[in-house]
Amino acid sequence: MSSIAVIDYGMGNLHSVAKALEHVQPGVEVRVTADPEQVRTADRVLLPGVGAIRDCMAEIRRLGVDKEVREAIASGKPFLGICVGYQALMQFSEENEGIDCLGEFEGRVNYFGDDLRDQAGERLKVPHMGWNEVQQSIDHPLWANIDNGTRFYFVHSYYVKLAQREQVAATCNYGVDFDVALAHNNVFAVQFHPEKSHTAGLQLLKNFLNWDGRA
Amino acid sequence: MALAKRIIPCLDVENGRVVKGVKFLDIRDAGDPVEVAKRYDEQGADEITFLDITASHEGRDTMVHTVERMASQVFIPLTVGGGIRTCEDIRKMLNAGADKVSINTAAVFNPEFVREAAERFGSQCIVVAIDAKKVSQPGEPDKWEIFTHGGRKPTGLDAIEWAKKMVEYGAGEILLTSMDQDGVKNGYDLGVTRAISEAVNVPVIASGGVGNLDHLVEGCIEGKADAVLAASIFHFNEYTIPQAKQYMRERGIEVRL
């Protein structure tokens, strides 16, 4: 049976994502861990994350998770980032007066703003919380059996803009257009929470567990 | 294309059992919150709220187990409220699999608790519940006050000012229950719902008094709520979640179908 390391750097509850993985693939070995050996020997790696980026980055560096992430990405094994685990892969985040992130991909994490409005001029609340439509930009094994435009569950106040447009796997609009999924070689990363997105989210996790890391 | 308004069924849970009863013809045990949550999940609820009304400490541990069971089987967001008084209470619920906790009375008695909780766990998981009652007389300018103890104890706090303060302290969402309406089934108090929704920049969940599907529509349109919470209209199969969503969509409200 295959194994997946869910990297635990102390930020938020990993129970849901672990349970969702076990739910879509009974028998999968889910390792909720920060131990480099456990991560290195897993078939797949998942980087989750919630909360403020400053605290996340501090813990990522303190626990040596930055090195684990770099190695996992370089190894070619399937890698999935979720929410702040996606944002952390970028170069820089505006949150907490500006924080340098892992820089695995060229991109920035920006604030939605305090006066966000839709096209009709209606004010939009921040955080962007709830179910929004995800527009797939590319065909990818992780989108298998998921309709374009399907709603996923989001909760975030900062959004990713990727510099390399060919890495964009999906976009969403909430006052601004932003990049809600990244695909590059063996890496896939999403801003929404698949573990909280009902059948579509579970399908994405299932696709990840069946993915060989090739786009 | 826009963010969908959320429909949130709410379950009152005491000692690990649903109280007030929930009737689903095809569930064997309608008293088990996890069974009920699963049914709402299948129907397409956007979130679930568990409100723990257990009085004792031992009963609270039962809630932790209920949340754990729920989180292993239901993959939509879960908010847990009732009896959240310390960061340790929050940590337990989040570790068990809750996505958000709702703080009510503890916020009124100790607003700093909200700040502490938001700093430690992030605003995204801190909901502040506000129980508001209209205190102005007809003819006077509208005024709503915060009440505690199920609407029995006035606090002297102005509901709109309080909501703004809670957001400043780090609340990521406001769960607004209009008390004079609660259980009466006359619909949400749209005045206070709209006033608070316009006064704060975080999502507002309207709660209290839903008796029919028009109330859900009004809550979104006139009340400008970002989400609508209801209990009894769903529990007794008066309406299903898909019926509610269809009805709202026909009236121009964006929903997740």
UniProtKB/TrEMBL annotation, chain A:
<comment type="subunit">
    <text>Heterodimer of HisH and HisF.</text>
</comment>
<keyword id="KW-0963">Cytoplasm</keyword>
<protein>
    <recommendedName>
        <fullName>Imidazole glycerol phosphate synthase subunit HisH</fullName>
        <ecNumber>4.3.2.10</ecNumber>
        <ecNumber>3.5.1.2</ecNumber>
    </recommendedName>
</protein>
<feature type="active site">
    <location>
        <position position="193"/>
    </location>
</feature>
<feature type="domain" description="Glutamine amidotransferase">
    <location>
        <begin position="6"/>
        <end position="209"/>
    </location>
</feature>
<comment type="pathway">
    <text>Amino-acid biosynthesis; L-histidine biosynthesis; L-histidine from 5-phospho-alpha-D-ribose 1-diphosphate: step 5/9.</text>
</comment>
<dbReference type="InterPro" id="IPR010139">
    <property type="entry name" value="Imidazole-glycPsynth_HisH"/>
</dbReference>
<dbReference type="GO" id="GO:0000107">
    <property type="term" value="F:imidazoleglycerol-phosphate synthase activity"/>
</dbReference>
<feature type="active site" description="Nucleophile">
    <location>
        <position position="83"/>
    </location>
</feature>
<dbReference type="InterPro" id="IPR029062">
    <property type="entry name" value="Class_I_gatase-like"/>
</dbReference>
<dbReference type="GO" id="GO:0016829">
    <property type="term" value="F:lyase activity"/>
</dbReference>
<feature type="active site">
    <location>
        <position position="195"/>
    </location>
</feature>
<dbReference type="GO" id="GO:0005737">
    <property type="term" value="C:cytoplasm"/>
</dbReference>
<keyword id="KW-0456">Lyase</keyword>
<keyword id="KW-0028">Amino-acid biosynthesis</keyword>
<dbReference type="GO" id="GO:0004359">
    <property type="term" value="F:glutaminase activity"/>
</dbReference>
<keyword id="KW-0315">Glutamine amidotransferase</keyword>
<keyword id="KW-0328">Glycosyltransferase</keyword>
<dbReference type="Pfam" id="PF00117">
    <property type="entry name" value="GATase"/>
</dbReference>
<keyword id="KW-0368">Histidine biosynthesis</keyword>
<keyword id="KW-0378">Hydrolase</keyword>
<dbReference type="GO" id="GO:0000105">
    <property type="term" value="P:L-histidine biosynthetic process"/>
</dbReference>
UniProtKB/TrEMBL annotation, chain B:
<keyword id="KW-0963">Cytoplasm</keyword>
<comment type="subunit">
    <text>Heterodimer of HisH and HisF.</text>
</comment>
<dbReference type="GO" id="GO:0000107">
    <property type="term" value="F:imidazoleglycerol-phosphate synthase activity"/>
</dbReference>
<keyword id="KW-0368">Histidine biosynthesis</keyword>
<dbReference type="InterPro" id="IPR050064">
    <property type="entry name" value="IGPS_HisA/HisF"/>
</dbReference>
<dbReference type="InterPro" id="IPR011060">
    <property type="entry name" value="RibuloseP-bd_barrel"/>
</dbReference>
<dbReference type="InterPro" id="IPR013785">
    <property type="entry name" value="Aldolase_TIM"/>
</dbReference>
<keyword id="KW-0028">Amino-acid biosynthesis</keyword>
<keyword id="KW-0456">Lyase</keyword>
<comment type="function">
    <text>IGPS catalyzes the conversion of PRFAR and glutamine to IGP, AICAR and glutamate. The HisF subunit catalyzes the cyclization activity that produces IGP and AICAR from PRFAR using the ammonia provided by the HisH subunit.</text>
</comment>
<dbReference type="InterPro" id="IPR006062">
    <property type="entry name" value="His_biosynth"/>
</dbReference>
<dbReference type="InterPro" id="IPR004651">
    <property type="entry name" value="HisF"/>
</dbReference>
<dbReference type="GO" id="GO:0000105">
    <property type="term" value="P:L-histidine biosynthetic process"/>
</dbReference>
<dbReference type="GO" id="GO:0005737">
    <property type="term" value="C:cytoplasm"/>
</dbReference>
<feature type="active site">
    <location>
        <position position="131"/>
    </location>
</feature>
<protein>
    <recommendedName>
        <fullName>Imidazole glycerol phosphate synthase subunit HisF</fullName>
        <ecNumber>4.3.2.10</ecNumber>
    </recommendedName>
</protein>
<dbReference type="Pfam" id="PF00977">
    <property type="entry name" value="His_biosynth"/>
</dbReference>
<comment type="pathway">
    <text>Amino-acid biosynthesis; L-histidine biosynthesis; L-histidine from 5-phospho-alpha-D-ribose 1-diphosphate: step 5/9.</text>
</comment>
<comment type="similarity">
    <text>Belongs to the HisA/HisF family.</text>
</comment>
<feature type="active site">
    <location>
        <position position="12"/>
    </location>
</feature>
<dbReference type="GO" id="GO:0016829">
    <property type="term" value="F:lyase activity"/>
</dbReference>
